[in-house]
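TL;DR need structure tokens for one chain.
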Amino acid sequence: MLDTQNTIDVNDGKGNPIATTFLWADLIRSLAILWVVVIHVADLVVRKWHHIPDTWWHIGNVFGASTRVAVPLFVMLSGALLLGRKESYKEFAQKRLVRILLPLLVWSIIYFLYRMGYHGKEISWQKALTTLLKGKAYFHLWFFYMLAGLYLMTPLLRIFVQHAQKRDLFYLICLWFYVVSLVWVLRFYLDLRIGIDLVNLGGYLGYFVAGYLIVTSRISSRMAWLALAVWMVALLVTVIGTVEVVQEMGKYNERFYNYRSWNVVLMSISCFILLKYTADRWENRLPGLGIKILSVLSQASLGVYLIHVIPLEFFQNGSLGFTLHPAQSHPLWMIPLMVICVFGVSLAVTLILLRIPLVRRWV
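>> reply
TL;DR here they are.
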């Protein structure tokens, strides 16, 4: 989402450069930002368990479950674009960290003002500073803190991934999957606690490395079909698992929605493989207009992510003189309608801001 250069420097693990086009990155980035909006709209439905018809809730669950891959896709895309590059620490700080920190600071201030003006919250300078350091200026800005942590590790990760064999990268991803997903499964379902401490492999590191591993590997048609099968099974588990846990607890629960749950990890990695494979196969068949649209959406993804919360809340709270809520009517058409409205407004505002020389650095 944050890196929009047209080329990436990657190799096949043996020092041979790989020519990587940008279509797959634009496709993944464009779909991921759209799916982020779908997640936040669908959440307005799935959080109303027992307050709306069951059929409506199940439809919201399908929308929400099927788009949980959005944030992992962004993380994998960042790893794919960054880990193969060779940059000095100075270049890295200027090109990467500033690209995160400047929008984060500016939009944290904007959302502090938004919370005071729109929500009527009183925020002192001391509380604002504490909230900023904790990463809680507004709920969706957590992504920048997570990504900043990965960026800080990137110079060291580059040394490892650029000299490692693919089996080394796969081993690292398997260890990460064990820490963030399987340990929880063993503890929750089998009450089995393993004392081996691998906590430092937590977070989103595995997604970051997985993106690089995928784009530096040849994706065969057999691998694509396998990825499709894994994606379908993982999606089914996400949908059904969420139904079961919500029915069991009697309230909304995100256990199977968690970005690091085993089902979402498998769904996200397989989705990345499928999108990369599809883009590579259709690169020379996609019309110029389609390529242009993907490029525009890709370049606007950061701005849409930062802005979309405001029109979302305006619509659902009736601040524009009318209310647009995905649970006010049948969500099968209300969710897509609200997504189109929120995404459309956010995209339009972003495209305007991108034309302003000073402001475009923030989006």
